[in-house]
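Notebook entry, structure prediction.
Reason for the run: the old model in the group folder had no record of what sequence produced it. Starting over properly, with the input documented here first.
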Amino acid sequence: MVTWGSAKNWNSAPLLDAVGALNAAYNKTIALSDDLRDLNTPHGWSGNAATAAAGKVTQIIDSLEEHAAELAAGRRSFGDTGDAITGVMHGVREAEDLAAAQHFTISDDGTVVDSGPPTGTSADQQEAVARERQKIAAELRERVDQVVRSATDVDADFSAVLDKILSGHTIDAAANDNEHTSLAGAGNAGDALGSLTIPAPPPEGATAAQNAAYWATLSEAQRTRLAIDRPELVGPRDGFSAKQRDIANRRLIERERTTLQYARDVLQSKIDNFPRTGGGEIKLNDQREFDALKSQLQTLDGKLGGIDKLNQRLNQPADTPENQKYYLLGIDGREDGKAIVAKGNPDTASNVATYVPGTTADLATFSDELDRGDAMHREAIESGGKSTSVITWLGYDAPDTLLDAGSESYADNGKKALDGFQDGLRESHEGVPSHNTAVGHSYGTTLIGHAARDEHLVVNDLVLIASPGVGVDHASQLNLPPDHVFSTTADKDVIHVTNFPRLPGGDGMPGDPLGPSPTDTEFGGRTFRSNPGTTVAGPLDLPSVAAHGEYWQQNNPSLRSTGKIIAGLQP
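New structure, fully documented this time:
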């Protein structure tokens, strides 16, 4: 039985060292293939002696085939097991490092022991510290359990291969046709038998901490193999590394495009074959149905175009600090479509920002949102945040219209997804914790506000741009110090004159607002300046919709301030 105490003493070196010797022996055996072809009974020789000789040849060939298969299986299983042990040991180190940093210890039987909070914890902090330590203890227990699960899986797989090798049941050599025997073929069969399975991930819906605990027990080779072989298990998982999520999602985006293209072809066929009059016109009674089909086709064309633009962006060269690699962290072509893309690796960056778009954002227009993310990334780097990743996060169903944006339901439906994503960024980050910022625009600020209010969003700063309200009356209700809540709205942004009443189905009665503007003095946060914005032509100099999207223009002080906040500086 594998325990924490036994697993933490595992050592992959002897197994990995043995791979070289096994490989040398395998190559020598395979080199005998030519000699086997000459072991046939001489032509014309018959009788008892010839029969005995033929039987002996068969035994030799079968023995060599079995030997080749055993060597190949051993070589593969020793290598895979050594590699898997490397992953298990990584999981052990991560758990022990977390325990040591938080004043916990882990006993050999896997018990997590709380050594007490750091000295100097004030009385008014004790309750909050106790709650936080309960969460840490739970995460440590999950990490210990996952190490033991993964180690048990590795042990069982390796034992099964060794049993077959030692019992001489690697392959059924006697079933082979010796006239056409191939030691290489026998070796290939043994190699396949020696391959270890990768432990199954936690079930769908697991927390970012559970996913990270599992991921920590896999080697880099196992992670990449899983991303390639089972991209649907890796791509959407918060807590898995950005590198492998990108590998998986680049495979999934091609699946999504194929699915959408097939749906479009079917729909186009329905439109082309739709019943018409003799003059080629649509009957009046059928016009509504026909218009619905055309609308669906337009939606599919938009999503396909959005995917094509996204693919172009993903394949751009990454050769400068400003022009970093894009990581595809999520893709979903259903409904309006969702996508999550990071510019720069969030697992290694010192500053990580998550930008949440607002009303009308969808897969068709995602490239425009990426432009805004790129502008913030560039500005953060120019502000001094050389190690920066900016993520454009469309991981929720955004309102389609301004009328829809009066409802809290979109924010309530998306807040857990945003919170889980932020937890995952913390879990998968390497080294010193990053400075994390959530940036929202328009209804995206409402989603961020609900996530911060209800889910305790794990970020250092909030940036609320052109907000219609975030669901609270004061910045302190967002579970961050108010001086870490920043906001701006252009003077000529139409949002100033839009009431955004809640609609029936929201938490409040019709007519209740989403909350006060975060730029109000009474809100308690900090504000920064934006350009006034474009106005509607005419003597009244009226606010405009155009001003609602101008915060990322190069000469706008709002962009400079946002970049500084992302870089951990004062705006």
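Summary: The first strand starts at residue 104 and ends at 106.
The old model has been moved to the deprecated folder.
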